[in-house]
Amino acid sequence: MASFTCSASDLHALLGTNSNSTAAAEYICNNFNAVANKFIDTSYAVDNTYLLFSAYLVFAMQLGFAMLCAGSVRAKNTMNIMLTNVLDAATGGIFFYIFGFALAYGTPSNGFIGKHFFGLSDFPSQSFDYGFFLYQWAFAIAAAGITSGSIAERTQFVSYLIYSSFLTGLVYPIVAHWFWSSDGWGSPVRSENLLFGSGVIDFAGCGVVHLVGAVAGFWGAFIEGPRIGRFDHEGRVVSMRGHSGTLVVMGTFLLWFGWYGFNPGSFLTILKTYGESGNSYGQWSAIGRTAVTTTLAGCTAALTTLFGKRMQTGHWNVTDVCNGLLGGFAAITAGCSVVDPWAAVICGFVAAWVLIGCNLLADRFHYDDPLEAAQLHGGCGTWGIIFTALFAKKQYVMEVYGGAADRPYGLFLGGGGRLLGAHCVQIVAIVVWVSVTMGTLFFILHKMKLLRTSAEEEMAGLDLTSHGGVAYEYHDEVELHSKKQRAFEM
Prior knowledge:
This protein is mainly α. Helices cover 66% and strands 0% of the residues. The chain has 16 helices and no strands. The longest helix has 52 residues, at 21-72. The radius of gyration is 26 Å and the shape is globular.
């Protein structure tokens, strides 16, 4: 917020030369400056409150992830998947605090990796306050949650602890530095040497969050192999539906709610005007537009999936619709702030077909992902990166990112191909980096026999074999009838 100051010497000349003019000028300026400082304080308070509230929304997505994951696996693995979601947050919190935040946002630094704020030392600073750390931590653990869905129902618990620490403490933060830090080589807000004169417009993380989590999950699931019974001896797909559509739907709605912190919250501040102050259009308008584009992309993807899967399978399947909805949200994440609502409809429509196509490929190549996490976040996230390079509007790009008047924008709107080139570089860089790091980690765990559970444990269920109990206490009708009969006879 711009500061306003009052100079007593300047004001004294306007008040005349009488004996009281100096005292009057000092009195007026002191009170004016006090009021101006209060406005500045208020602007900081409003922006930080907005950021903290957004962080709380994004963190609430962890509950949505947990419910979605629990409903998508079989009942015998419910406690296991719920605990992994808790530990993604807890482990991620410690390792992001010690290492991750510094590697991502430790400015000043080089284009590859951050160098300051380890353990939040010398914090807060002029650049960052505690609310920013909390918000970025919520993003880091979201990436880890994506990975846990891909390797569900057959992974040793110790592997979750190892990969979650490594992902949130090293792999994710470096990617975040590349594209979100002001020093990153792919950042759209660098002061100079922008990638293709543009940098990468990945506003809320199609690449940084969704593609990172998806590629990590892909390698984990690929190295582990499919669950026992997922494909029969002739290679045909065997359906392994989750045990609770209710949990899937409730988790989806919680994720939908949290996405309003994920996308609109990525503005970080709300009190910013576009153009002259005093008008009704500013960053608050862009935040509202971002919420609308997010909503429309998800809704369009859900309806497209509903009818697409109906034609494919002959059923109206609630789980498929929920995954389609989330695919639309994942796809709009990069461009939500710089596209018009009509473009968001296109984004969601294509995202649904991308997800359907990725699932067909997964079945074709015997790839098993219980939550379709790699297909959803990887396929739809990649489409979202490309979509932004095609449909980003010049006015919105300039408002959100600023820069030179000739800054590239969407190819289909006349902005040339430089933004698309930068986004293709982003996709390749993320896939290579995450594959080298997380792929190697999962391979080492596999070789050390720390990755996959034994066949006996997998068949019995991880709740019983790893966690000493089951999520649900239930009895079948025959057993219950026998107990009642014996009680009656006694």
